[in-house]
Each structure stands twice: as structure tokens, then as C-alpha cells.
Specification:
Low-confidence stretches: none
Helix content: 25-40%
Bound molecules: S-adenosyl-L-homocysteine
Order of helices and strands: HEEHEHEHEHEEHHH
Strand order of the largest sheet: 4-3-5
Radius of gyration: 23 Å
Strand content: 5-15%
Shape: elongated
Oligomer: single chain
Structural class: alpha/beta
Number of strands: 7
């Protein structure tokens, strides 16, 4: 299930010692002779609930209670940039994946577990959600992204949605890369990127553009030309 964490950029980050991911199977801690981890919910609802015993033992035997424990759950607070930054600042975290109907509440209460949701929809298990969390937190660790890429220069994190991207060739089946991008004029290129970002953000997420333009920090260090386009977009809001 967790193969994606071992490949590509996360795999490299692990090899380089920037990241360590331990996958623990609660079934290995079940005291039941059939290695059962779930049972019928009290109150007669449908589905199954993960029992406390395997999870308590799994947490205690691995001393996971010494780390912050998160439980992936549609009842949780939505995973956003602030939460991602918070998690990336701690050295060790435990991510509990539910299955079936979820986990016995006593696990969450005993270990002061924080519930986190990745969106307003319901998955069959917490594994995919946990991988989303691990992936996005890992990108914040210095060195995980290759070369000069910065985790903060992306859509959302920069405060705006990103401009369109182009690569070779300049002419593909009669469609062209905007000329400015290969003009070599970095001032003009940055101006184009800023204006395109603001255009797309205005169309798709105007509330983000408002926030961006109302934040003084985003105006400092800008060229005259950049300030001029920003003023134009302030008028358009
Ligand atoms: N009965 C639960 C849903 C269980 S879904 C409820 O109504 O709240 C099964 C498991 O998938 C959950 O235990 C959780 O770990 C995971 N999951 C489902 N949707 C999720 C979401 N949006 N975000 C994070 N985890 C989710």
C-alpha cells in the first residue's frame, strides 16, 4: 500500500537520510489468534471498528506516544499550509490510518490524538490520506526537492496560483510558447509570471488574490512595473 513513499523524490530523500518512514502494521500486535483487529460497533451500526488492544499495544511497544499522533479522518481539521508547516517543524510524528468505520474512540482519547482530514469526501482507508500528508510535509524539508526548486514558490504557498508552464519545443504543432519566456530578460519574465499568476488567481480563487494584495509583505521589494500590475489587479477585484 505504501510503495509510493519508497519511490521517486521521497525514496531519494529517504536514501539521503533526510526522511525516515517506518510502517507498522497493527495486525502484528493483535493478541487474537486470528490476528483480528476489528469488531462490530456498539450501537448496532453497519461496518467494523478497529479495536483498542492492537492499537494500544502497537503505540506503546513502539513508544509512539512520545511523538505527536495524528489520525487521518474525515472528521478532522482540513490539512492546509499552516498545518503542513506545523507538522514539518516537528522531528517525529505518528500517522494512524483507520479502516472500515474508523477506530475505537478510546485510542484517540488515551493518546491525545489529533484528527486530520484531507478533504470533504470519504476514503475506504487512511493510507492514501496518510501518504498525502507525508508527501506534502516531506516537500517542506530542505533538500527534499531537487536543485533550486523552492517549496514555497508553488501555487497556494506563494499566495497565488501558479502561472502556466512551458517547456521545449517553442513551436509544437503550430502552438507557441509565449515569446517573453525565452527573451532572456529576467525583469520582463518575472513581470509576466506575476501578471499571469494574478490573472489565473483572479479567475479561479479571487479570495486568494485579495489576501495576497492586501498583505503589505507581498509589495515590498517589488519593481515599479510589478507594483503597477499589482495596482491594476487591486482595481479588478
Ligand atoms: N466512519 C467514518 C469514516 C470511515 S472511512 C466517519 O464517518 O467519519 C475509513 C477510514 O478512511 C477512516 O478511518 C480514515 O482513516 C480514512 N479516511 C476517510 N476519509 C478521509 C479523509 N477525508 N481524510 C482523511 N482520512 C480519511
Amino acid at each position: 500500500m505504501f510503495t509510493p513513499l519508497k519511490t521517486s523524490m521521497l525514496g531519494r530523500a529517504t536514501e539521503n537520510g533526510l526522511l525516515e518512514i517506518n510502517i507498522i502494521n497493527p495486525r502484528d500486535y493483535s493478541k487474537n489468534k486470528h490476528k483480528k483487529v476489528d469488531d462490530y460497533p456498539f450501537g448496532g451500526a453497519q461496518g467494523m471498528v478497529m479495536m483498542p488492544q492492537p492499537l494500544f499495544d502497537c503505540i506503546r511497544e513502539n513508544s509512539l506516544q512520545n511523538s505527536k499522533i495524528y489520525y487521518m479522518s474525515p472528521r478532522g481539521k482540513l490539512l492546509d499550509f499552516a498545518k503542513i508547516k506545523e507538522i514539518s517543524s516537528i522531528s517525529e510524528a505518528t500517522v494512524l490510518c483507520g479502516h472500515y468505520e474508523g477506530v475505537d474512540q478510546r485510542v484517540l482519547d488515551e493518546f491525545d490524538v489529533e484528527e486530520i482530514s484531507i478533504g470533504d469526501y470519504v476514503l475506504t482507508g487512511g493510507e492514501l490520506a496518510a501518504m498525502v500528508l507525508v508527501d506534502t510535509v516531506a516537500r517542506m524539508i530542505p533538500g527534499v526537492l531537487s536543485g533550486e526548486e523552492s517549496a514555497l514558490e508553488e501555487s497556494i504557498y506563494s499566495g497565488l496560483l501558479e502561472h502556466d508552464q512551458y517547456t521545449q519545443p517553442r513551436d509544437f504543432e503550430g502552438t507557441f510558447v509565449p515569446e517573453v519566456l525565452y527573451s532572456g530578460n529576467h525583469g520582463l519574465i518575472n513581470l509576466w509570471k506575476l501578471e499571469e499568476s494574478m490573472k489565473i488567481t483572479l479567475e479561479r480563487r479571487p479570495e486568494l488574490l485579495r489576501q495576497f494584495l492586501e498583505d503589505e509583505n507581498n509589495w515590498s521589494g517589488r519593481s515599479k512595473a510589478e507594483k503597477k500590475v499589482m495596482e491594476k489587479y487591486l482595481q479588478l477585484l
